[in-house]
UniProtKB/TrEMBL annotation:
Regulation acting on activity, per entry: The formation of the proteasomal ATPase ARC-20S proteasome complex, likely via the docking of the C-termini of ARC into the intersubunit pockets in the alpha-rings, may trigger opening of the gate for substrate entry. Interconversion between the open-gate and close-gate conformations leads to a dynamic regulation of the 20S proteasome proteolysis activity.
Alphabetical keyword list: Cytoplasm, Proteasome
GO cellular component annotations of the record: cytoplasm; proteasome core complex, alpha-subunit complex
Protein task: Component of the proteasome core, a large protease complex with broad specificity involved in protein degradation.
Record bears the keyword Cytoplasm: yes
UniProt-recorded Gene Ontology molecular function terms: threonine-type endopeptidase activity
Organism annotation: Cellulomonas pakistanensis
PROSITE patterns: PROTEASOME_ALPHA_2 (PS51475)
The protein, known as: Proteasome subunit alpha
Example GO BP: modification-dependent protein catabolic process
A Pfam family matched in the record: Proteasome
Pathway(s) it belongs to: Protein degradation; proteasomal Pup-dependent pathway
């Protein structure tokens, strides 16, 4: 009788984590930035149908990188969770923290019990009455949750792009300026490439949305076409380190 092949738990978890990280890094980055009237989301995405950024509830949005079918299933589950909670209790009882906890349980369970982890990284954001009450949660493939302040970069060259954003972002920036910063960062050259290789991404290749605290009920709004072009055209050039 042959003995089963043994893999230590530490090695198994490491292999799963490496597998998930490689899958996430292959995707295009998503940048989430707080601005003076809310929270902005931007990513390079030429598709008009397959969204990486979506509305979950009145003042809550969802952004993701990784395998589309996996994070789309999570988005749909989040919408159902929010609708059911809002219907059963009160719309004010639906918040980003509760949704982030539900996602963390799902991601953590899949990571530890299934043979393949979910190749996704997601952000759940909620716009508050003012900047101090905004909530941005980043969830990793293993269910870990980070309470972020100001900005998040996921997918692709996330670490390097995060450094660029950190050097240029300041609180209460106008929407046009944060979008210009996001687009410039998304067009960053690959590691080791020259700065002259930085791409200028046209508005038609971008997926951009905002949670606008000035809107009365549904804060989520997509920006595209002439509106997006005007915002990008009116922005001051961001100062990157």
């Amino acid at each position: 009788m042959s003995m089963p092949f043994y893999v230590s738990p530490e090695q198994l978890m490491k292999d799963r984590a490496d597998y998930a990280r490689k899958g996430i890094a292959r995707g295009r980055s998503v940048v989430v930035l707080a601005y003076e009237d809310g929270i902005a989301f931007a990513t390079e995405n030429p598709s008009r149908a397959l969204h990486k950024v979506s509305e979950i509830y009145d003042r809550i949005a969802f952004a993701a990188v990784g395998k589309y079918n996996e994070f789309e299933n999570l988005r749909v589950a989040g919408v159902r969770y929010a609708d059911l909670r809002g219907y059963s209790y009160d719309r004010r009882d639906v918040n980003a923290r509760g949704l982030a906890n539900a996602y963390a349980q799902t991601l953590g369970t899949v990571f530890t019990t299934e043979s393949k982890p979910l190749e996704v990284e997601i952000v759940v954001a909620e716009v508050g009455e003012d900047a101090a009450t905004d909530q941005i949660y980043r969830l990793s493939y293993d269910g870990s949750v980070a309470d972020e302040r100001g900005f998040v970069v996921m997918g692709g060259q996330a670490e390097r792009l995060r450094e660029e954003v950190a050097g240029a972002w300041v609180p209460d920036m106008p929407l046009a300026d944060v979008l210009a910063l996001a687009v410039r960062v998304l067009g960053a050259p690959a590691d080791g490439a020259d700065e002259d290789d930085r791409r200028v991404i046209p508005a038609a290749q971008l997926e951009v949305a905002v949670l606008d605290r000035t809107r009365p009920r549904r804060a989520f709004r997509r920006l595209s076409g002439v509106v997006l072009e005007d915002l990008l055209g009116s922005a001051a050039a961001p100062d990157l380190p």
